[in-house]
Task: structure prediction
Amino acid sequence: MLFSLYPTLTQNYFILCFVACLGTLQWAAARNHKPAISFLGRWGLGRLGQGVGGLLVCTSLIWFFTATPGLFTPGLAGGELSSLFVAGGLSALLVARLAGEFWQWRYRQGLILRYGLRPTQDDRYGLRPTQDEINALGE
Result:
């Protein structure tokens, strides 16, 4: 591997892959209403999330092509590029899942603290209170 021969190109390409994959995951989470991979939490599930995801992808591409010196000279080979892409993509997925889990945990804690509600076990995301708990609030 030639990672050590081209440190600037290697670092810049990894950052490009990480940020672009993170933007793609955010856009997909916003488009499909998946809070589990939204690093913006529930606020990122609409047009805001799609815009932030698109902005991350475009910004990472513009930054990479302007900040990488000697981009078109011989550099990293195909195997090195693909391994950096996989590392960046998996890192972005890990960050998105951790952020999504954090926001879901904060939401569940807010339900418990504000209303004394516990999320249901059968709820897909564990975010909705049970009908008995809702009825108990009205009594």
Observations:
- The chain has four helices and no strands.
- Helices lie at 7-32, 47-67, 78-115, 131-138.
- The chain has a mean pLDDT of 77.
